[in-house]
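Batch job 17 of 40 flagged for manual review because the log was empty.
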Amino acid sequence: MQNEIEKIKKYVGDDNVQYETVIEVENTDNPDVKTLNLKSGTWSGKEPWFVIDENQKLHTMISIDSINKLINNFKQLQQDNFELKLEKTILQHVPIDYQDVWVVAMDEIKKIAIKKGNEKTLNIDLEKLLRKIKKEHPNLFLNLKDLFANQITQ
């Protein structure tokens, strides 16, 4: 069990903690009541707490505050990832003014979000969205065909 805890600590970059809290769950005569025994660490120890159940399976316990922080970090990561994908897609379409295209794209995304209601995640085909924007607002993008045609005729 200790080996699994060490692996987890190394994975999350917290392998310097000397006194992690390890709790063992034990059965009692009453099947609805369990006893928690502190195997190592302290009851006020740093999160996560490691819990070994009566079947010798390892679990972790963290506070609601920590769960909220994890969820918020995940949401921010999703937002950052989406924005990077949008940025890449915009740049692949050779915008004249990147910021103008970004604003138009975000307006279109907001319209899609409103149309779909309060869905938690939006699956938007960014390539399709940019083709639509390029068709509706061709002045925002360089037309490479025209650019190369002008160079050939000169």
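Reviewer: the log was empty due to a logging misconfiguration, but the result itself is present. Residues 94 and 144 are 9 Å apart (CA to CA). Unflagging and moving on to job 18.
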